[in-house]
Amino acid sequence: MTKNLGTTDRIVRSVAAVVILFLILTGSVEGTPAVILGIVAVALLLTSAISFCPAYFPFKLSTLKGQKPKS
Fold first, then answer.
1. CA dist 39 to 22, 55, 70, Å?
2. C-alpha angle with apex 51: 39 to 26, nearest 5 degrees?
3. Considering the entire predicted model, what is its pTM?
4. 9: which residues sit within 8 A by CB, 6+ positions away?
5. Phi, psi angles (nearest 5°) of residue 22
6. What confidence tens digit (pLDDT) does each residue in 4-44 have?
7. What CA–CA distance (Å, rounded) separates 48 from 59?
8. 65 in a domain, yes or no?
9. How many domains in the chain?
10. N or C: which end of the chain has fewer CB within 10 A?
């Protein structure tokens, strides 16, 4: 698994996930939307932690500076 997330991308994903989780924990979002956003938040945190986004892979996209993902 080749890394394809740069530092800025990882930070943005992490901040977005924390904001989503905060909204869920404070009760601002409830029910089905909360479950869906919770799954999205976990996915954002996971991809940020491993520096790999499966959605980027088929398109050979990378936000790493100076590197392209290997096929």
1. 14, 16, 28
2. 35
3. 0.83
4. 48, 53, 63
5. -60, -45
6. 999 999 999 999 999 999 999 999 999 999 999 999 999 99
7. 18
8. no
9. 1
10. C
Q: Which two tokens stand for residue 55?
A: 């959605």
| Cα distances (Å, whole numbers) of residue 12 to 32, 50, 67, 70, 71 | 24, 14, 20, 24, 25
- 27: domain range? 7-50
Say if 38 falls within a structural domain: yes
Question: What amino acid is encoded at 26 in this protein?
Answer: T
Q: Are 3 and 64 in contact (CB under 8 A)?
A: yes
d(CA 61, CA 18): 25
State the Rg of the chain over Cα: 14
Structure tokens at 13: 């994903």
Q: How many CA atoms lie within 13 A of 54 on its CB side?
A: 3
